[in-house]
Specification:
This protein is mainly beta. The protein contains no helices and eleven strands. It is globular.
Length: 126
Amino acid sequence: QVRLVESGGGLVQAGASLRLSCAASGRTFRWSPMGWFRQGPGKEREFVAAIGGGANGRIIYADSVKGRFTISRDNNGNTVYLQMNSLKSEDTAVYHCAAGSYVTVVTSNPDQYDLWGQGTQVTVSS
């Protein structure tokens, strides 16, 4: 069974850091673009960051997290991380991991990702 499982969320104060993990299983994801999206309370889902497949996959970020968040993946490509520093209250959201099985380029378009995890809650108190 192909699945994505996120972990690492929690309740932190503004300015703190968290590291989210997304464990992909069921097949190799080495060549699949993978991304993080989030949905805050009363907000629409928004793109956070994405990383392309392979050893030197291209990385893109939403403007709102540039310089604070870092996306990476392990050598086998099946685990993706999101290091979040200098967290703000507006970062409060459920964070979802996604993988694109049928795309070869990294993208911020959620419609290009066909596999999604259940999400992990990140709450930042001010």
